[in-house]
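Morning. Coffee machine broken again, so started the prediction first thing and wrote up yesterday's gels while waiting. Chain of 112 residues, entered below exactly as on the submission form.
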Amino acid sequence: MADVLAQIRALIALSASDNLDEARNASLAATRLIRKYGAIISLPPENIGTSFPAPTSKRRGDGWRRIKAKYAGVCVHCRQSIRKNTPIWWSFDKGAMHKDCYEPSGKKKAER
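Came back before lunch.
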């Protein structure tokens, strides 16, 4: 059972991944193991009532994510090319943008 608990613990940690598919699959696998073995997951008594730090994330609240470009493309802001493996801001419904075309405040930079 110790091996199963270690595996569940590792899957739960992996469920915080920035890769959505990896996080979803890890969560699903952890849930299946918890159900299969009837494991009860709880906080140790010394941690009850304590707050946990917010996870560090590359996501913004407005739907944009900071990633490396998997493919070459075109910036939705400046219409210049984006090379593969360069850092970009990406949104599922809006497309990709150079990291320099996106302000940290969450607003697009003014047209150049």
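The chain has two domains: 2-47, 58-112. Going to sketch it on the whiteboard this afternoon.
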